Amino acid sequence: METGTETETETETTIGNSTGPDKMTRVLLVICGVVLLATVTTAGLWATGVLKQHRTQAVCSGPGPNDPPEYTALCAALNRPDLPTLLGTPNDHVSNAAPGLSDGLAVAEVRLEHTVVAVADTPWDVSSMGDSPHTERVTVLGHPAVTSSGHALVLFGSHDKQGPVTRNLTVAKNPRDPGGRAYQFAVFRQDGSTPDDTDVRRVAETVLPTLPGWVPAQ
To answer: What pLDDT sits at residue 51?
Structure first.
């Protein structure tokens, strides 16, 4: 995605380095192309009140020529009016909703004033995850799931700086087929604080039933 005319701005993405030793753990962060665009510019606009005067919910931008067709449904489901409340920041505001860096996967990213969240449609096998000390097996709406964490990468600016902590939740689409496809949610906060797993789970439990291919647990 284009980042406009920004220069020497530290841009962060949840495409990043996992702390886990196994290959699957390292891959967990690769699907989440949540890019914090125009960090300095956006912060300046909020500080001067320019954006606060126009708090209309941002609409999803259209897919680019290389974005998978599933992106449109993902963005529509994630870009909810109550998303700030689900993330525990009810006074926050959605400033951008667009495709994320995806490496061929469908990824929708929603950027708020203080938080960035993404959902991706992945081919991952949840049953093979969770075997590292940096992941944890959980159940979400009766579906097998795995939590993990890592750090966003700084794409521009100081590459020696470690990006914000990301919290990720990967959930099997079909509760009876954990080896099939899965949705992954990823969240990081722009102030560098660690996202609350309760907030990440709340977003997932609200959005998942509205996503295509989701099979409700019996």
So the answer is: 44
pLDDT of residue 160: 55
Between the alpha carbon of residue 65 and those of residues 28, 62, 73, 74, the distances in Å are 25, 10, 16, 17
- Distance between CA atoms of residues 115 and 112, nearest Å: 5
Which residues, 6+ apart, have CB-to-CB distance to 4 below 8 Å?
Answer: 37, 38, 41
Distance CA 65, CA 144 (A): 33
**pTM beyond 0.85:** no
User: Distance between CA 145 and CA 35 in Å, rounded?
Assistant: 24
**Beta pairing, strands 94-99 & 106-112:** antiparallel
- pLDDT at residue 148 greater than cutoff 50: yes
Residue positions counted in the chain: 218
Extract long-range pairs of 59-68: CB within 8 Å, 24+ residues apart. 59/97, 60/97, 60/98, 60/108, 61/96, 61/97, 61/98, 61/99, 63/99, 64/1, 64/99, 67/99, 67/102, 67/106, 68/102, 68/104, 68/105, 68/106, 68/121
Instruction: In whole angstroms, give the CA distance from residue 27 to residue 20.
Output: 10
Report the alpha-carbon angle 71-77-83, nearest 5. 125
Radius of gyration of the chain (CA): 16
Token pair recorded at residue 172: 């099997």
Which of 142-151, 152-161, 189-198 has the weakest average pLDDT? 152-161
CA distance 21 to 7: 35
Split at pLDDT 50, 70, 90, the class of 129 is: confident
When mean pLDDT is compared over 97-101, 188-192, 211-215, the highest value belongs to 211-215
